[in-house]
Amino acid sequence: MSTWSLTQMMRMQAPWRPVFARFLSSAQNRTVPPPRGSIDTPKAFLKAISRTRRDLVSNSTCVSAVGEDWNEMFSLTTEKLKGAGVPVKERKYILWSLEKYRQGLHPSEFAYDIKKPKKVRGWGPRVQKGYRVRGELRPGEKRA
């Protein structure tokens, strides 16, 4: 019986390495969760994740991109939504919400509204509620 050298053993294992690496780096097949409660259609899902300033149900591009099939909705990708004309923020929010629903959370636990628009605009922290709080006054400005 001959003894194997370390290099001979490495040569024997070399063809298997790329195969295992491929399996490790490939994406896992994502499961489609069953409909839960009142959320049984894609339109009901969009309604559940919608909020006052983010009304996805009335947005026809979102509704048409999601479609009518439950299984098809969970196979959506960024490219498909972009091709349908869905804006970037809605795309990210829809895909994020689908993943949270897939993990078992109810939309009432994770759905959120978009940020409110700023009320005070100006030169940053120097100006609050339209009045300069600190710093030098500019020509024509009044100190509060």
Shape: flat
Strand order within the widest sheet? 1-2
Helical content (DSSP H or I, runs of 4+): 40-55%
Rounded average pLDDT: 80
* Strand percentage: under 5%
Q: How many β-strands, per DSSP?
A: 2
Computed CA radius of gyration, to the nearest angstrom? 27 Å
Unreliable parts: none
Structural class, by secondary structure, is mainly alpha
Number of helices: 8
Distance between the termini: 97 Å
**Secondary-structure element order, as H and E?**
HHHHHHHHEE
The tally of structural domains comes to 1
Largest sheet: 2 strands, antiparallel
Domain Small ribosomal subunit protein mS41 SAM: 42-104
Family: Belongs to the mitochondrion-specific ribosomal protein mS41 family.
Protein name: Small ribosomal subunit protein mS41
Organism: Malassezia pachydermatis
